[in-house]
Design goal:
The protein is an alpha/beta fold. The strands form two sheets. The protein has a nine-stranded parallel β-sheet. The chain has a two-stranded antiparallel ribbon with strand order 7-8. Helix 10 runs antiparallel to helix 11. The two termini are about 30 Å apart. Bound molecules: 3-hydroxy-3-methylglutaryl-coenzyme A (HMG) and magnesium ion. Magnesium ion binds next to loops.
Length: about 300
């Protein structure tokens, strides 16, 4: 029996948050429904952040409310990003059952992204975790800049391990390690993962690769060899990060599924359907899909 790999589709959040074309609520809901129909089981659906900071995610409450009341999506995890208590209250009001909190391994990046140092972000997380416990909400934790920071340069693997461990110890069920600017290569990714895995079990780790320098699939392969079985990716390779200059999109989900199929892993995702979704959403955004697989297949 082949092993299962879980893909966390982040296109509707990480992808769309950095696209120039702003999509309305209906189009975002349709995208999530189409992604679910490909067999994806986890789809990050929005972000309860300030619309002044990230206008693309305005209306996330409506997006979440719509997808959560769609019975066809009952078995799909639909997490949303939450930066603070205010965001958590909005997420709860929308009926969200899973949230993701986010911090970084670099104070400089975290300041630009959320106006808080790493320590200050953990102060914001305390009431979020209390509310999560009270309402039975699952919490995933992100660490950004796990290889390098666009403002302060190289990041030590030990620093990543420290922040990942703090998130784990405060109750996150999974820690997603983000190469926010897509700069890492296999040797650096391996060193970072090995440092984290000294403190956190591999079954609690996800890898979140952006593909700025075209190294994402090589880094994912390193993750697979070290036992990581959860990877974040975005349909059509959408997006980037508004607070990380030069960051291109997440690695394309189609490319990750193609790799995993070839390596004999099971994802439960229909690649042809996914390619169709990638083509459709790219047209709506007036851009070409940033996926080698989709470009090869259509
Ligand atoms: P702040 O300015 O420090 O917050 O922003 P504040 O508490 O001083 O509030 C300022 C204003 O924001 C107030 O409104 C608040 O009500 C409002 P005003 O009085 O000016 O009208 N506010 C909010 N509004 C909506 N939702 C909220 C909220 N909180 C306060 N939750 C804050 C702090 C975190 C809000 C801000 O910095 C922010 O929203 N940042 C956005 C960060 C973001 O979404 N970044 C992209 C996602 S992270 C990422 O992409 C990385 C990842 O993919 C992994 C990787 O690749 O590395 C996850
Ligand atoms: Mg990201």
């Amino acid at each position: 029996m082949s092993e299962i790999v879980r893909i966390v589709e982040v296109g509707p959040r990480d992808g769309l948050q950095n696209e120039e074309v702003l999509l309305d609520v209906t189009t975002r809901v349709e995208l999530i429904e189409q992604l679910a129909a490909t067999g994806l089981k986890t789809i990050e659906a929005g972000a309860f952040v300030s619309p002044k900071w990230v206008p693309q995610m305005a209306g996330s409450a409506e997006v979440l409310a719509a997808v959560l009341e769609n019975e066809k999506l009952n078995n799909i995890a639909l997490p949303a990003l939450v930066p603070n208590e205010r965001g958590m209250a909005d997420a709860i009001a929308a009926g969200v059952k899973e949230v993701a909190i986010f911090t970084a391994a670099s104070d400089e990046f975290n300041q630009k992204n959320t106006n808080a140092t790493i320590d200050e972000s953990f102060e914001r997380f305390a009431p979020v975790m209390a509310l999560a416990k009270q309402h039975g909400i699952k919490v995933r934790g992100y660490v950004s800049t796990v290889i390098a920071c666009p403002y302060s340069g190289k990041v030590a693997p030990e620093k990543v391990a420290e922040v990942a461990t703090r998130l784990h110890d405060m109750g996150c069920y999974e820690i997603s390690l983000g190469d926010t600017i897509g700069i890492g290569r296999p040797r650096e990714t391996k060193a970072m993962l090995n440092a984290v895995l000294q403190n956190v079990g591999v079954d609690k780790i996800a890898l979140h690769c952006h593909d700025t320098y075209g190294q994402a699939l090589a880094n994912i392969y390193v993750g697979l060899e070290l036992g990581v079985r959860v990877f974040d990716s975005a349909v059509a390779g959408l997006g980037g990060c508004p607070y990380a200059k030069g960051a291109s999109g997440n690695v394309a989900t189609e490319d990750v599924v193609y790799l995993l199929n070839g390596e004999g892993f099971r994802t439960g995702i229909d690649l042809d359907k996914l390619v169709n979704v990638a083509t459709n959403i790219s047209q709506k955004l007036n851009r070409l899909p940033n996926s080698k697989v989709t470009l090869a297949k259509v």
